[in-house]
Amino acid sequence: MSDITAVKAPALREIKKGRVRKHIITLLVRNELGVLARIATLIAGKGYNIEGLSVGETHEKGLSRMTIEVIGDDVVIDQVVKQLRKLIDTIKVRDLTDIPHIERELALIKVHTATPRARDEVLRLTEIFRGKIVDVSQSTYTVEITGTEDKINAFIELVKPFGIMEMARTGKVALKREMASTEEEQLWK
Amino acid sequence: MARKGADIVIETLKEEGVEYIFGHPGGAIMEVYDALYRDGSIKHILTRHEQGAGHMAEGYAKATGKVGVAMSTSGPGATNLVTAIADAYMDSVPVVFITGQVPTHLIGNDAFQEVDIVGITRPITKHNFLVKRIEDLPMILRQAFYIAKTGRPGPVLVDIPKDITQKISDVEIPSLEEVKSSLPGYKPHTEGNPQQIKKAARLIAEAKRPVLYVGGGAVQAEAQKELVELAELMKVPVTTTNMGKGAFPESHPLALHMLGMHGTYYANMAVYNCDLLIAVGARFDDRVTGKVEEFAPQASIIHIDIDPASISKNIVVDVPIVGDVKVVLRKLIEEIKKEGAKLLYPEERQKWLEQIEKWKKLHPLTYRKSDKVIKPQYVIEEIWKVTKGDAIIATGVGQHQMWAAMFYRYSFPRQFINSGGLGTMGFGLPAGIGAKIGRPEKEVFVIDGDGSFMMTMQELITAVHYRVPVKIAIINNGYLGMVRQWQELFYEKRYAEVDLSIQPDFVKLAEACGAVGFRAEKPSEVREVLEEAMKVQDKPVLLDFHVDREENVLPMVPAGKSYRDMILEDGKKGVEADTMYLVG
Ligand SMILES: Cc1ncc(C[n+]2csc(CCOP(=O)(O)OP(=O)(O)O)c2C)c(N)n1
């Protein structure tokens, strides 16, 4: 093998286990019986809890998109992604954690607003956060708010003192960013 | 043509070339049995337990390379299949499991004999289906076969409600092209990345101390010719896993035999000291690696596997190649030949092979012989001799399994059939029967433990019923031997619940079933009974070997330990420092 140049073998393989963080995984799946259970079973089988999950149909018939949030070891999550890819019903699986992507979440928050001052304040906060008041009663406002996890958390912190009666949050939905340069995208460059 | 769902099932199975179904009937699957009876062209083996049906289908698949089929009714019939399904999943065995289900309108109602078998088997199947419309039935069945046998093979379950088997439809059987295009997300890779193959060729040429580490994937791919060619061409010694046995002929001078927990001294030393490990269809199982950090600590690793998820699962590798083992090896050899097939460091390679010869001489596979008590290893050696090394061997799980792996010499793929991944006691007898049914021209020996045998021994009558002339050698130590060994070595001989000295008279049991039985209690009788057994060709023979009760399987690397902690054949602990070649 005359023209083969020597490749240096690494002295010691690195075993890269150990970095634990939140991963966000997006899947395009066939909308078949049991597909959700199959995916959840696979992740639970690794001993991980699913922190967030959202599913909905796409523009293509029979295909759904799922977004899953899961906290875990990088190496193990890489395994999970490979195994998810192997499932017969998955068309595409991607770990978005280190890829520029857009994520959004929706929350419905029912806030105690018995006093005029509370009503004013919550209304003002809702406007600042570009939320919407979608239900009103004698003593409550229900606010709809969308955005990143941080934004929703910030809003929740601000209205907490008034008293949160009930709350529902969707899991995240996420899509990979295309590289067409919107203003926001410049940030990723 | 309008026909019942049940007839569609049979029609599709025939289309898939199914010769045998292993199964057990019941209410929810009765229509299919009726269709089977009316059609008459597929043979059915009525096992005495569904677990037996599952393992028989596995044995059949492992021995022939074809897809096995096991069938049961709903509820308890289906749950009895679960162990075999999990076993097939762990060992990547292509088996289609067909279960009856309660009628569609009763699903979810806790109906009689209802169980959510699709839910239960979700984590232990490559894929599974519940058929909800008769129109989907032939497509689902064809998908099941296609998924089971392509890519990394595995079990697929199809659950069919009773009303679906009774409905009438004129749905056509889809073509293979239609099957493929109906599965847009399923695209097994077979070719291997050319860039990576180039890189691998280079690494092999420049390695000083390479080792091929060959697993079950190479058996599945039947890549023996390619392995031998590569090993000889580049002078690479070859170790196989338990599942990889037969992928490389064990009589070959480059054979290192098995590695890992009960691997040979020389295989483990070679892996410990190698600078390049070429993993072929192997998955770095913990029984192989022991302590991961000390597994091949100096080596670069090339990993060829059809399953991308197998790569870098337990150990991060340097050159991953996803593809069919046979195809990739072919290309790799071509690549090496194209480059002139020259080693960069021929002297170093020569020294490496000499070092391995030294290790082989220093600690060959051996045991203390006796003329008073039968040594289990001796029985295996004698079986090897009377069968001229040409039998298919199926085993249970335990010490006997390891002795069968060590002391029989395997020369062709699909010759050693055992439960590697799940480690299922009770696997041997039914798997051996399935193997014999699939390969009637071969002598099939079941090497079983007394404990393992008793887990599925009712299948003896199945073998008698269908005149399947398997030979069953029970390595009878009156113990759950492997557990006893661990208790001896790691629990100060506290033998908690491992005594099996109260047991049936196996010879009488064989006779009661209409099989032939022999017993050997002295070493001098071993050869004699084996020769007698070889004469019987029309029914099963059971051989009850009363062996040394406290014999141990050695060498042994204790679980989770490094190869350096290997206990050797003389019971000495640890590998002596002066034999450690490069790594201190
Ligand atoms: C179904 C099942 N139950 C339990 C075990 C745990 N186990 C592994 S080896 C073994 C003992 C096997 O005894 P035997 O079949 O007599 O074989 P021996 O080790 O004596 O050769 C046991 C209990 C197992 N592997 N499978």
TrEMBL record, chain A:
<dbReference type="InterPro" id="IPR027271">
    <property type="entry name" value="Acetolactate_synth/TF_NikR_C"/>
</dbReference>
<dbReference type="GO" id="GO:0003984">
    <property type="term" value="F:acetolactate synthase activity"/>
</dbReference>
<dbReference type="Pfam" id="PF22629">
    <property type="entry name" value="ACT_AHAS_ss"/>
</dbReference>
<comment type="similarity">
    <text>Belongs to the acetolactate synthase small subunit family.</text>
</comment>
<dbReference type="InterPro" id="IPR004789">
    <property type="entry name" value="Acetalactate_synth_ssu"/>
</dbReference>
<keyword id="KW-0100">Branched-chain amino acid biosynthesis</keyword>
<keyword id="KW-0028">Amino-acid biosynthesis</keyword>
<comment type="subunit">
    <text>Dimer of large and small chains.</text>
</comment>
<dbReference type="InterPro" id="IPR054480">
    <property type="entry name" value="AHAS_small-like_ACT"/>
</dbReference>
<feature type="domain" description="ACT">
    <location>
        <begin position="24"/>
        <end position="98"/>
    </location>
</feature>
<dbReference type="InterPro" id="IPR002912">
    <property type="entry name" value="ACT_dom"/>
</dbReference>
<dbReference type="GO" id="GO:0009099">
    <property type="term" value="P:L-valine biosynthetic process"/>
</dbReference>
<keyword id="KW-0808">Transferase</keyword>
<dbReference type="InterPro" id="IPR045865">
    <property type="entry name" value="ACT-like_dom_sf"/>
</dbReference>
<comment type="pathway">
    <text>Amino-acid biosynthesis; L-isoleucine biosynthesis; L-isoleucine from 2-oxobutanoate: step 1/4.</text>
</comment>
<comment type="pathway">
    <text>Amino-acid biosynthesis; L-valine biosynthesis; L-valine from pyruvate: step 1/4.</text>
</comment>
<dbReference type="InterPro" id="IPR039557">
    <property type="entry name" value="AHAS_ACT"/>
</dbReference>
<dbReference type="GO" id="GO:0009097">
    <property type="term" value="P:isoleucine biosynthetic process"/>
</dbReference>
<dbReference type="InterPro" id="IPR019455">
    <property type="entry name" value="Acetolactate_synth_ssu_C"/>
</dbReference>
<protein>
    <recommendedName>
        <fullName>Acetolactate synthase small subunit</fullName>
        <ecNumber>2.2.1.6</ecNumber>
    </recommendedName>
</protein>
<dbReference type="GO" id="GO:1990610">
    <property type="term" value="F:acetolactate synthase regulator activity"/>
</dbReference>
<dbReference type="Pfam" id="PF10369">
    <property type="entry name" value="ALS_ss_C"/>
</dbReference>
Automatic annotation (TrEMBL), chain B:
<dbReference type="GO" id="GO:0003984">
    <property type="term" value="F:acetolactate synthase activity"/>
</dbReference>
<keyword id="KW-0460">Magnesium</keyword>
<dbReference type="Pfam" id="PF02776">
    <property type="entry name" value="TPP_enzyme_N"/>
</dbReference>
<dbReference type="GO" id="GO:0000287">
    <property type="term" value="F:magnesium ion binding"/>
</dbReference>
<dbReference type="InterPro" id="IPR011766">
    <property type="entry name" value="TPP_enzyme_TPP-bd"/>
</dbReference>
<dbReference type="InterPro" id="IPR000399">
    <property type="entry name" value="TPP-bd_CS"/>
</dbReference>
<dbReference type="GO" id="GO:0005948">
    <property type="term" value="C:acetolactate synthase complex"/>
</dbReference>
<dbReference type="Pfam" id="PF00205">
    <property type="entry name" value="TPP_enzyme_M"/>
</dbReference>
<comment type="similarity">
    <text>Belongs to the TPP enzyme family.</text>
</comment>
<dbReference type="Pfam" id="PF02775">
    <property type="entry name" value="TPP_enzyme_C"/>
</dbReference>
<keyword id="KW-0274">FAD</keyword>
<comment type="pathway">
    <text>Amino-acid biosynthesis; L-valine biosynthesis; L-valine from pyruvate: step 1/4.</text>
</comment>
<dbReference type="InterPro" id="IPR012001">
    <property type="entry name" value="Thiamin_PyroP_enz_TPP-bd_dom"/>
</dbReference>
<keyword id="KW-0285">Flavoprotein</keyword>
<feature type="domain" description="Thiamine pyrophosphate enzyme central">
    <location>
        <begin position="197"/>
        <end position="332"/>
    </location>
</feature>
<dbReference type="GO" id="GO:0030976">
    <property type="term" value="F:thiamine pyrophosphate binding"/>
</dbReference>
<dbReference type="InterPro" id="IPR029035">
    <property type="entry name" value="DHS-like_NAD/FAD-binding_dom"/>
</dbReference>
<keyword id="KW-0100">Branched-chain amino acid biosynthesis</keyword>
<dbReference type="GO" id="GO:0009099">
    <property type="term" value="P:L-valine biosynthetic process"/>
</dbReference>
<dbReference type="GO" id="GO:0050660">
    <property type="term" value="F:flavin adenine dinucleotide binding"/>
</dbReference>
<dbReference type="InterPro" id="IPR029061">
    <property type="entry name" value="THDP-binding"/>
</dbReference>
<dbReference type="InterPro" id="IPR045229">
    <property type="entry name" value="TPP_enz"/>
</dbReference>
